[in-house]
């Protein structure tokens, strides 16, 4: 019954709403607006929403009203006083109701109580204009690590004098693991080779980075191939799709400029913090130049390491004396290029140059094994050791990425590379050599030379310059006081240089060391050639001073080996006639009686060829014979005298 009544109510309301009114009372402002029905009851009975017409009311400010029912619009008139609402259905029928909150209660035309609960539909307020996002506060600059050997790491260029490492330190490029600031945290330290955190790539360009540093390169010969991720990224750069990250075109070039006034360059060490050089994996081939001059001492090292990660490591190369003038000029241009066109991307974090460095930079050590008796060289230097009878060897090295070369006559040379830590032996390489035709390491003197000499007599300067130009100054004499007496070990090295210059060959050390008191590789070369057989009883006496007649004899043997086919030290006597026919014996020296018989032919051969002219007053001074002469080093050859003789040998006898 209630349902029927409610439906009747609805119908009646709808029907009655068509009666217009012409006079309206002002509507209470709080009721103005649109209302929608949310529930309805009839005499306490809840009418399901599915059983009554869903309609809403709109009260206008002028007192008029609109009712909506299932999409149909009807018009009626309302007026209210306070919360009392009068709804006119017709001139005779008026329903009176009252609002209480959102509840409207009234009696319909049949006198039944009706309660409608409305919900006012709030007008949607326009979306407020979004407030502009505040400008992000700049991140505070990370505090730069710093130390007394390198200065502030995040500085782009630093020059320091009289550090614990060197008289002058020059660095170009910041120490930040290729713009990887996060990688440069957590105790990151490239100088100890510990905690070498990997960094992301490619990395965002920093226009303040010095040219050549913190950029991905592929080299000037690149043809578009990609062997690694760096080269793939580079391809994106060349196609124009990557405009924000750091790339460099052509050969990598880094300029170092510094004030070297007042510094007498005695040695120099070049350190490069390299990243992703992979010559071994991709058959790439890197060239290095300093001021346009080839720098094989550095290129050899870059071509025998293989980096992945990506992680940056320091490699260190001793700069040869031939580049000391460039170092002293205060302007160095380092150029690194990939020469095959292989897509092997690479980068450099920073470059560091140490001028007149202290040996304390070689704080790392490592040991390894190879073929017994092989020559093992630390790449980037002239430092060589002879593998023991069990193949063992040991090196001191600069911490970072290091490489070695092992070679021996009758074997194909071998290489190895690895990480050497500061003060800890970490790397233990094994270099297995295969039998075959190889290239024994006998030409390492061009790597890592120091200053040609520290001190020399005025008369000897030109001779020494000539000796240096001819390549006759061995490693053991470079940078030394040339006025000092030469010992047997040093002179053996000179004699080997003379033989190689005359014969145009490179010598090798004897495989089985015959000496109990010396394992110097140059002495073993001299023995192998036949220049010396020691002082007897299995000894060489390497530190003994060398008499002038001994020097003449050893160098004469060099000439015999070069000029007389089939000559050896053991067959020397059988070639006596051949040798004497090669020169006409000159006038005797005034002190001929002091020259031992075994040395006379050699002494006068040298005089006949204008290689040795004595010490004045037609004296040769072959040896010291009395205490006074010994005290004055009478008869002992000096280093500069030995090198003068060496120059005479090459110039007069070749």
> Residue ranges: pLDDT <50 for 5 or more in a row?
1-27, 69-77
Overall residue-averaged pLDDT value:
82
Report the total helices: 13
Please give the number of β-strands: 29
Description:
By secondary structure, the protein is an alpha+beta fold. The chain has 13 helices and 29 strands. The strands form seven sheets. Strands 1-3-4-5-6-7-8-9 form an eight-stranded antiparallel beta barrel. A hairpin with a 3-residue loop joins β10 (146-147) and β11. α7 (488-503) crosses α8 and α7 packs parallel to α13 (639-653). It starts with a helix and ends with a helix.
How would you briefly describe this protein structure?
With 654 residues, the protein is of the alpha+beta class.
Which properties best describe this structure?
single chain, 654 residues, alpha+beta, eight-stranded antiparallel β-barrel, 13 helices, 29 strands, rod-shaped, disordered N terminus
List the helices and strands and how they pair.
Elements: H1 2-16, E1 33-42, E2 45-46, E3 55-59, E4 64-69, E5 72-81, E6 84-88, E7 94-100, E8 103-107, E9 113-121, E10 146-147, E11 151-152, E12 157-161, E13 166-172, H2 229-239, E14 252-257, E15 268-275, H3 279-282, E16 286-290, E17 293-294, H4 296-302, E18 312-318, H5 324-329, E19 331-338, E20 347-357, E21 364-370, E22 375-378, E23 384-386, E24 392-397, E25 400-407, E26 411-412, E27 414-420, E28 430-431, E29 434-435, H6 461-469, H7 488-503, H8 521-529, H9 548-563, H10 576-580, H11 597-608, H12 627-631, H13 639-653
Parallel strand pairs: 21-28
Antiparallel strand pairs: 1-2, 1-3, 1-9, 3-4, 4-5, 5-6, 6-7, 7-8, 8-9, 10-11, 12-13, 13-20, 14-19, 15-18, 15-20, 16-17, 16-19, 21-24, 22-23, 22-25, 25-27, 26-29
């Amino acid at each position: 019954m209630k349902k029927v009544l409610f439906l009747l109510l609805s119908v009646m309301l709808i029907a009655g709403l068509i009666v217009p009114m012409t006079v309206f009372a002002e509507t209470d402002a709080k009721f103005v607006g649109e209302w929608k029905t949310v529930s309805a009851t009839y005499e306490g009975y809840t009418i399901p929403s599915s059983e009554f017409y869903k309609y809403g009311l709109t009260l206008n400010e002028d007192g008029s009203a609109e009712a909506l029912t299932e999409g149909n619009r009807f018009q009626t008139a309302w007026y209210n006083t306070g919360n009392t609402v009068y709804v006119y259905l017709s001139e005779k029928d008026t329903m009176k109701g009252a609002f209480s909150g959102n509840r409207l209660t009234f009696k319909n035309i049949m006198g039944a109580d009706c309660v409608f609960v409305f919900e006012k539909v709030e007008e949607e307020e326009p979306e407020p204009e979004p407030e502009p996002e505040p400008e992000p506060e700049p991140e505070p600059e990370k505090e730069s690590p710093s130390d007394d050997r390198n200065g502030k790491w995040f500085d782009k260029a630093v020059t320091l004098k009289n550090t614990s490492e060197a008289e002058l330190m020059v660095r170009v490029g910041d120490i930040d693991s290729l713009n990887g600031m996060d990688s440069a945290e957590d105790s990151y330290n490239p100088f100890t080779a510990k905690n070498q955190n990997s960094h992301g790539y490619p990395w965002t360009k920093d226009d303040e980075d010095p040219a050549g540093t913190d950029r991905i390169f592929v080299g000037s010969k690149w043809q578009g191939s990609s062997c690694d991720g760096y080269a793939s990224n580079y391809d994106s750069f060349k196609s124009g799709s990557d405009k924000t990250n750091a790339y460099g075109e052509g050969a990598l070039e880094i300029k170092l400029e510094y004030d070297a006034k007042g510094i007498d360059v005695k040695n120099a060490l070049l350190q490069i913090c390299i990243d992703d050089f992979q010559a071994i994996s991709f058959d790439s081939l890197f060239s290095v130049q300093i001021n346009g001059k080839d720098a094989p001492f550095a290129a050899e090292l870059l071509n025998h390491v293989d980096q992945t990660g990506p992680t940056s490591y320091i490699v260190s190369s001793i700069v040869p004396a031939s580049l000391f003038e460039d170092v002293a000029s205060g302007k160095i241009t380092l150029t690194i290029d990939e020469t095959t066109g292989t897509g092997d991307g690479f980068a450099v974090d920073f470059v560091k140059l140490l001028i007149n460095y202290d040996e304390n930079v070689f704080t790392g050590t490592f040991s390894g094994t190879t073929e017994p008796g092989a020559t093992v060289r630390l790449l980037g230097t002239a430092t060589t050791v002879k593998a023991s009878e069990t193949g063992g060897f040991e090196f001191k090295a600069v911490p970072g990425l290091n490489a070695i070369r092992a070679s021996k006559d009758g074997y194909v040379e071998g290489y190895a590379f690895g990480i050497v830590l500061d003060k800890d032996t970490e790397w233990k390489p094994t270099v297995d050599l295969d039998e075959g035709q190889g290239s024994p390491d006998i030409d390492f003197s061009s790597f890592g030379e120091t200053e040609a000499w520290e001190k020399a007599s005025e008369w000897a300067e030109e001779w020494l310059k000539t000796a240096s130009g001819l390549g006759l100054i061995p490693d053991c004499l470079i940078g030394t006081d040339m006025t000092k007496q030469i010992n047997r070990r040093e002179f053996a090295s000179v004699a080997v240089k003379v033989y190689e210059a005359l014969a145009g060959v490179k010598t090798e050390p004897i495989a089985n060391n015959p000496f109990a008191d010396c394992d110097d590789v140059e002495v073993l070369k001299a023995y192998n050639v036949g220049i010396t057989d020691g002082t007897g009883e299995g000894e060489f006496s390497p530190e003994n001073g060398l008499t002038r007649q001994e020097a003449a004899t050893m160098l004469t043997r060099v000439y015999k080996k070069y000029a007389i086919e089939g000559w050896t030290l053991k067959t020397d006597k059988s070639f006596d006639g051949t040798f004497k026919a090669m020169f006409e014996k000159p006038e005797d020296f005034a002190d001929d009686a002091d020259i031992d018989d075994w040395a006379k032919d050699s002494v006068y051969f040298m005089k006949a060829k204008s290689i040795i002219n004595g010490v004045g007053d037609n004296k040769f001074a072959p040896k010291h014979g009395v205490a006074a002469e010994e005290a004055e080093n009478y008869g002992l050859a000096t280093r500069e005298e030995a090198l003068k003789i060496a120059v005479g040998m090459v110039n007069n006898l070749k």
